[in-house]
Amino acid sequence: MSEEATNLLVATSGDESDESEPLITSLHPKGPKTRHIFALLGFLGFANVYAMRVNLSVAIVAMVNNTAIANNSMTNSSTSCPVVGNTTDTPTDGPFDWGAREQGWLLGAFFYGYVLTQIPGGRLAEVYGGKRLYGVGVLITAIFTILTPLAAKTSIYTLVLVRVMEGLGEGVTFPAMHAMLAVWVPPQERSSIAGLVYSGAQAGTVLSLPLSGYLCDKLGWESVFYVFGTLGVIWWVGWWYLVYDTPSSHPTIHRVEKRYILDSLGAKRNTGSLPVPWLAIFTSGPVWALLIAHVAQNFGFYTLLTELPSYLARVLHFNIRDNSIISALPYLLMLITGVVMARLADWFLSVGTDRTFVRKIFNSFAIYLPAIFLVLAGYSGCNSTLTIALLCLAVGTNGCHYAGFMCVHIDMASNYAGTLLGITNGAANIMGFVAPTVTGYIVAGHSDVPHWRMVFFIAAMVYCVGNTVFLVFGTAKEQKWNRRPEDQEEVEEEDLLDNYEY
User: Fold this and answer.
1) How many C-beta atoms surround the C-beta of residue 139 within 10 A?
2) Coil, strand or helix at 142
């Protein structure tokens, strides 16, 4: 008998059923569970937004006039990698004369808008529900993605503005989803479902990078933005009609599943909207540790996400088709790692392992291992096979963070999960324009290994500092300010559903 059915039998023992149908028949919902449909659409939503976010990283290689840039600004040296055999084709020059600094600005412009809607997005989702906010955020991103070719042909400033607007729309997606996960997902399934939903980001990257390279090569760089923008609009239609803010508001959810979710969340979820305890949040050591870990994670992640195609093209001399396929490999590994490790984390929790220990150990895998691989990649020189393998390992092992700090917002304060993620994600995504800008200034005018080695070293150092702070000061324990004052004494009681003693 399913866990939902068992819980319902226990909860209703001694009570007479008012249903005319046999109880045992109603205990087995047929078809996919409603929360799993929500998770699947959330996965596809993040696949869409990340595809729209990263496609410029590939398309910009086809958009710029590489010959003019090489002739005007690139310095070759004995440390530059040679072009070996037929590893590269003669590139087709694009119409735009954007150097490394300008490209850094364009790749980072998205995040200027992205950080502004993080905290408002989280709080609005908690108060009004995340369905509309998440859906509209993806839709806005899709519309401005479709407008990108027109903006680029108008002026670089118009393109910057469009990228900022995309960021404003997409900025609400992670906080809104965190708020929805807090009301839709039982604690014992939190790592695996959150890992599945957020691994959509890697799925979108895996899809976007090679497909963007193919579209640029066959149909021109403009097609990249038209295709992914249209897919985003199509996704929005499905989300709008199939997903609801809470299990209680869903008109077709099976009563067993609804009862199971609500009973699993129990006293941790307060009905209605509570005022945000801003002072308690901003004076909380664990919150600051979580924020620092998130910032460190994003600096390293965005260094590779936005700059890896440029590294492969300018240093290792891969053509745009091979470049885009190889750029996707690390994120395919990250997708697999994220899903598998999230389920493993839930297993450890199910057998009674301390929740804070689980979060910290998986987060350490996600941060320290990539730091090691990045340092090694810095010394792999022009050995393209070894470099690609190390970068795949660096990005792939980073997928463990979905079972690490990414669940801690909900663990610590499920009533304010959206607000907390808005705070940490807002700060962390400042790295979205810091990382490419720093990289742009370091490698401007250079296409050699030593300058990129410095880029990798900086990312590794930031990784290590961030996770060390999280290990020392972080926690996954529920915080007292997550409850109403009259309920705060319950925080110290044993939570049987989570098998964890606070």
Assistant:
1) 19
2) helix
Max CA separation in the chain (angstroms): 83
- Number of helices (H), then strands (E), belonging to the chain: the values are 23, 2
Residue 420 CA to residue 119 CA, distance in Å, equals: 8
> By three-state DSSP, how is residue 18 classified?
coil
Q: What is the C-alpha separation between 326 and 339, in angstroms, rounded?
A: 21
Rounded CA-CA distance 117/377 in Å is 35
> What residues does 501 pair with on adjacent strands?
494
Q: Show Cβ contacts of residue 353 under 8 Å, excluding neighbours closer than 6 positions.
A: none
Apex 471 CA angle, 191 and 412, nearest 5: 45
CA distances from 404 to 22, 138, 329, 473 (A): 43, 26, 22, 14
Q: Which residues make Cβ contacts (< 8 Å) with residue 164, sequence separation at least 6?
A: 109, 110, 112, 113
For residue 148, the number of C-alpha atoms closer than 13 Å in the C-beta half-sphere is 32
Most confident of 8-22, 223-237, 252-266: 223-237
In angstroms, the CA 478 to CA 414 distance is 8
Residues 458-486: tens digit of each pLDDT? 999 999 999 999 999 999 999 999 876 65
If we measure between CA atoms, which residue out of 191, 198, 185 comes closest to residue 45?
198
Alpha helices in 252-319 (DSSP H): 255-265, 278-282, 285-314
Q: What φ, ψ does residue 495 adopt, rounded to 5°?
A: -100, 105
b/e 283-321 (16+ beta carbons within 10 angstroms → b): ebebbbbbbbbbbbbbbbbbbbbbbbbbbbbbbbbbbbe
In this structure, what is the dihedral angle of CA atoms 129, 135, 141, 145, given to the nearest 10 degrees?
A: 180
Q: What is the mean pLDDT of residues 107-124?
A: 85
CA distance 35 to 452: 44
Q: Give pLDDT, residue 398.
A: 93
Provide φ and ψ at 250, rounded to 5°: -80, 125
Q: Name the average pLDDT for the chain.
A: 81
Rounded mean pLDDT of 349-360?
Answer: 93
Q: Is 68 left (phi over 0), alpha (psi -120 to 50) or beta?
A: alpha
Residue that is written with structure tokens 């691989």 in the block: 373
Please give the model's pTM, rounded to 2 decimal places: 0.74
Amino acid 245 reads: D
Say how far apart CA 47 and CA 55 lie, in whole Å: 12
